[in-house]
Inverse folding.
């Protein structure tokens, strides 16, 4: 892999993530049947949804990722306090949506300076795993830092073994794909997670898509491994409904990392909020320089 190819994959991952967020948000919390009735196949970034978004607007998934990316760039490395401070600034910016566990953790930090909650069964939501891509990019060549930084940012809001394991596995798969490793290596990574926590098993795929991290990982792995293009992966994933902006974002991240930025359909990239595209392009380059 040349440096240019790696950068194209990294850009594919980050822009693919934002495309999945914007595409999936339209059908978030809908069932596959409701989506089918309303759209046939949902395949265009048209906004709307329960958040009543503009076409191309992204949600908390992309916004929280950008806040972590910015903290890494501003401190040229890892400073967990800077990450938490950026979360507070974001919370106070009146974001379009925010998960309950995220709100609770950020509020706890704002009020008491506590950077990690106690381990909790209730923290197995998607909120920590969904925002970890900037850590993947900044630690591409430093796997030892990857675990430490990832778990620290997770624990500001989510302290749960399933959330931790999912975040590390999904991030490692993204790393392998960005560096051009083969699909066998990625499947082995997924198998390791399932050996550790059998609930993540996605064969046969049961079609569950909720805010529960186990459902999310099953969904993105199923559609990522069973499709053969960026577009097919994203469309299949979001039409499964449920937490569709988050599954869309994470599936878009994996597919973008594998197929590269050049496979992201023009109609999606053009529709995406230009400011978000600009920030992602800039952050990707600056985060890769840290790696
Ligand atoms: Mn969201
Ligand atoms: Mn969501």
């Amino acid at each position: 892999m040349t440096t240019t190819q790696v950068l194209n994959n990294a850009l594919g991952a980050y822009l693919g993530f934002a495309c999945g967020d914007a595409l999936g948000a339209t059908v978030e919390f809908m069932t596959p049947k409701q989506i089918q009735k309303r759209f046939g196949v949902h395949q265009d970034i048209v906004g709307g949804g329960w958040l009543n978004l503009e076409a191309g607007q992204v949600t908390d998934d992309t916004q929280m990722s950008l806040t972590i990316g910015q903290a890494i760039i501003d401190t040229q490395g890892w400073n967990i306090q800077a990450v938490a401070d950026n979360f507070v600034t974001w919370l106070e910016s009146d974001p379009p949506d925010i998960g309950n566990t995220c709100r609770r953790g950020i509020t706890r930090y704002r009020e008491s300076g506590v950077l990690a909650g106690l381990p909790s069964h209730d923290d197995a939501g998607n909120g920590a795993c969904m925002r970890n891509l900037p850590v993947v990019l900044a630690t591409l060549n430093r796997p030892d830092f990857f675990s430490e930084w990832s778990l620290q940012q997770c624990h500001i809001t989510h302290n749960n073994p399933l959330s931790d394991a999912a975040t590390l596995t999904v991030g490692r798969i993204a790393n392998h794909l960005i560096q051009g490793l083969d699909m066998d290596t990625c499947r082995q990574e997924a198998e390791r997670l399932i050996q550790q926590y059998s609930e993540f098993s996605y064969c046969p795929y049961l079609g569950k898509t909720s805010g529960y991290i186990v459902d999310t990982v099953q969904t993105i792995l199923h559609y990522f491994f069973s499709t053969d293009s960026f577009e097919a992966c994203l469309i299949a994933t979001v039409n499964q409904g449920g937490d569709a902006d988050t599954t869309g974002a994470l599936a878009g991240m994996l597919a973008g990392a594998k197929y590269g930025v050049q496979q992201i359909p023009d109609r999606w990239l053009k529709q995406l909020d230009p400011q978000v595209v600009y920030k992602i392009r800039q952050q990707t380059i600056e985060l890769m320089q840290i790696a």
The pocket of manganese (II) ion (ligand 2) is lined by residues 28, 243, 245-246 (CB under 6 Å). The mean pLDDT is 98. The chain has one domain: 3-290.
